[in-house]
Amino acid sequence: MRLLLVEDEADFAQALARRLSREGFAVDIVHDGEAALELADVHAYDLVLLDLNLPKIDGLDVCRALRAKRPELFIIMLTARDGLQDKIAGLEEGADDYIVKPFHFAELLARIHAVLRRDPRARTPVLTVGTLRLDPLRRLAWRGDERLSLTKKEFAILEYLMRRPGEVVTQEDLLEHVWDASANPFTASVRVHIHALRRKLGDSADAPRYIETVPGGYRLRTDESESRR
């Protein structure tokens, strides 16, 4: 999952982004409302963490603009404004949740997971495709009864594919949702991580049981018993 963190306090933003990254999220940071809208036009974020007290464009105006452009985008407001009317205003402008600073990271993480579960693709606690199982909340994955030892990127790639079984997923899709803005679109990183993931799945690009290379990208097979293509 790729998040946009909009927070004008740079030290706080960096510390929060590091903790979110350790939880497996790809996080981009901007420090003002104008930059938030510009970046949201470029990248397909899954969720935005949005401060209200922002330079250039206020957080409420950012929320309103994001909601108008991308109704499906999840938005959680992070703010020191704790008045009832502030909360009501944030929610009425389109925020999915509202958390007051200071907050415990565990609470923020729980709220992020709760909001993301509103996506129909995320409602199943454990994803199952063929003999593959993946638990996004506990960050665990199995092939049959075998527990898989995956890096954060490998886990995120597998989760993204398992939420879209049978669909063609492009390299650009994976860069958008698994990597952050620092990723080089011309890098071989996606191919390298797919190769490593295949190896851990006991898979092969030449005779794939799980991940196929197809015109345009990759596809997670939904029936491992299919004849080889």
Structure description:
By secondary structure, the protein is an alpha/beta fold. The protein folds into two domains: 2-120, Rossmann fold, CATH 3.40.50.2300; 124-220, Orthogonal Bundle (Arc Repressor Mutant, subunit A). The protein is 38% helix and 21% strand. It has eight helices and twelve strands. The chain has a five-stranded parallel sheet with strand order 2-1-3-4-5, sandwiched between helices. The protein has a four-stranded antiparallel sheet with strand order 6-7-8-9, covered by helices on one side. Strands 10-12-11 form a three-stranded antiparallel sheet. It holds the Pfam family Response_reg.
**Helical residue percent band:** 25-40%
SSE string, helix = H, strand = E?
A: EHEHEHEHEHEEEEHEHHEE
Instruction: List the domain count as a whole number.
Output: 2
Query: Structural class per helix/strand content?
Result: alpha/beta
Beta-strand percentage range: 15-25%
Q: Note the overall shape.
A: elongated
Low-confidence stretches: 225-229
Largest sheet strand order:
2-1-3-4-5
**Any guess at the CATH architecture of the largest domain?**
3-Layer(aba) Sandwich
CATH topology label of the largest domain:
Rossmann fold
Total helices: the number is 8
What average pLDDT do the residues reach?
88
Spatial extent as radius of gyration: 19 Å
Cα-to-Cα separation, first versus last residue: 31 Å
CATH class of the largest domain: Alpha Beta
Number of strands: 12
GO cellular component, one term: cytosol
Organism: Hydrogenibacillus schlegelii (Bacillus schlegelii)
Protein name: Two-component system response regulator
DNA-binding region: 124-222
